Amino acid sequence: MDAVNKFLADLSSILWGPWMLVLLVGTGVWLTIILKGIQFRLLPYALRLTFSRERVGEGDVSHFGALMISLAATIGVGNIAGVATAVAMGGPGAVVWMWITALFGMATKYAEGFLAVRYRQINHKGEISGGPMYYLETGLGWKWLGVWFAVCGALASFGIGNMVQANTTAEALINVLPVNKVVIGIVLAFFTGLVILGGIKRIAEVVSFFVPIMVLFYFAGTVIIIVSHLDQLPSGLAALFKQAWTGTAASGGFAGATLAQTVRFGVARGLFSNESGLGSAPIAAAAAKTNQPAKQALVSMTGTFLDTIIVCSLTGLALATTGVWTSGETGVALTLQAFNAGLPGGWGQGIVTLGVITFAFSTILGWSYYGEKCFEYLAGEKFIPYYRVAWIAFVFIGAVVKLELVWNFSDVMNALMAIPNLIGLIGLSLLLSRETGEFEKGIRNGTIHRFD
Predict the structure, then answer these.
(1) What is the structure's pLDDT at 177?
(2) What is the C-alpha separation between 422 and 414, in angstroms, rounded?
(3) Which of 123, 105, 147, 135 is nearest to 200 (CA)?
(4) Arithmetic mean of pLDDT, 64-87
(5) pLDDT score, position 408
(6) HSE on the CB side for 28, CA within 13 Å?
(7) SS in 3 state form for the chain?
(8) Which of 97, 203, 396, 444 might form a disulfide with 189, Cβ 3.0–4.6 angstroms?
(9) Which of 303, 283, 379 lies closest to 60 in space, CA to CA?
(10) In whole angstroms, what separates CA 315 from the centre of its chain?
(11) C-alpha angle 94/90/315, rounded to 5°?
(12) Neighbours of 380 (CB within 10 A)
């Protein structure tokens, strides 16, 4: 088993090496160019559209519901531990590279959402099915790439989207409650079953209520920390922008970071947080009730903005203004230091613990739908009830076992998901550019309504 784990760890290092980061960011740069900076030009319209609750056209859920499923899967432990790891390894300047990655990643998310709706299908139950596997098969004409993506997506979902999140929840709870992991696993599996057995509509209902509340709660905590250290905000911001281009000198328990390290950890953790280019989010986007692919694409684009530009930024600023990033800690432990520094009396511990639990549970719900649609593509919808039962069982298993091998396996599967998805985005980019241009022309001349 140790040999298998080492092999997966080595393979993950190769797959997530500099070439993959260049490919992911480079795709975002290319899409930004051919879409003429759509993420900058139409962001205000996209945000208004997100909260318009538009429900015109085919689909299973609203624009907002589809976005909340995507954010449920995306806003997770990466926003708490991932940002802290980037700052701990690359210095505060890594946050700026997370922003840069996100800005280009918004164009990638737009492209994924557009193609997901453009090539979605209706299954025998009358439900929407879509995602990279469908635009790879129908749009690009390469079914084998669609199968590749679906196999890796289905396998990855049980790892990073299920067992890892359940284990993270269990680890957080045993530190604050007098219960063991078996009890936590049973309770977590029970509540997961209550939601996912109802299908996408119930998932959308739950996360549409749940996600905004958990984000606002975490948002409030970080804002209080920043305000309580307002005198340190100018120097904290200065450190972010200066060290983004120079690297960071050793300080306290921080070992120092070169510019290359700052860029690497900022880009890598930014991509890990918002999942732009991974191919997971368009599976949810395809289910949106819409009459224009571009509309849901714009809504999908706001997911990266909300996840990285807003939520991750607040974590980064809390770390920078409190100065705890030099302590030598990393991950959740570092974020916890910042919250304890800004919120005394146990409030910091409570918010971080609650954040870890709620973010991890929401990821379980979001990824359950991603994995389900990958499984449906491979085996058909008649096997979906068995998939859901297996998903619930693996939530329990994930809560009670050690997961180093699962982490490494999931990292490999995630990389292998991204490769065919990026091929599809690049291969269909000219069609994407042409049809987006037609949409914008329709908006200008009034043949397409901005809101329906």
Answers:
(1) 77
(2) 12
(3) 123
(4) 76
(5) 78
(6) 28
(7) CHHHHHHHHHHHHHHCCHHHHHHHHHHHHHHHHHCCCHHHHCHHHHHHHHCCCCCCCECCECHHHHHHHHHHHHCCHHHHHHHHHHHHHHCCHHHHHHHHHHHHHHHHHHHHHHHHHHCCEECCCCCEECCHHHHHHHHCCCHHHHHHHHHHHHHHHHHHHHHHHHHHHHHHHHCCCCCCHHHHHHHHHHHHHHHHCCHHHHHHHHHHHHHHHHHHHHHHHHHHHHHHCHHHHHHHHHHHHHHHHHCECCECCECCECHHHHHHHHHHHHHHHHCCCCCCHHHHHCCECECCHHHHHHHHHHHHHHHHHHHHHHHHHHHHHHCHHHCCCCHHHHHHHHHHHHCCCCHHHHHHHHHHHHHHHHHHHHHHHHHHHHHHHHHCHHHHHHHHHHHHHHHHHHHHCCCHHHHHHHHHHHHHHHHHHHHHHHHCHHHHHHHHHHHHHHHHHCCCCCCC
(8) 396
(9) 283
(10) 16
(11) 50
(12) 11
What is the Cα–Cα distance from 371 to 208, expressed in whole angstroms? 20
Please, which residues have CB within 8 angstroms of residue 82's CB and are 6 or more apart in sequence? Answer: 269, 272, 273, 312
CA 451 from centre of chain: 27
Mean pLDDT of 38-48: 93
**If you average pLDDT over residues 402-426, what whole number do you get?**
86
Say which residue the tokens 């679906």 belong to.
Answer: 150
What pLDDT, on the 0 to 100 scale, is given for residue 1? Answer: 67
Q: According to the model, what pLDDT value does residue 85 have?
A: 80
In this prediction the pTM is 0.91
Other C-beta atoms closer than 10 Å to the C-beta of 276 total 33
* Tokens read off for 438: 């037609």
Instruction: Mention the CATH class of domain 15-445.
Output: mainly alpha
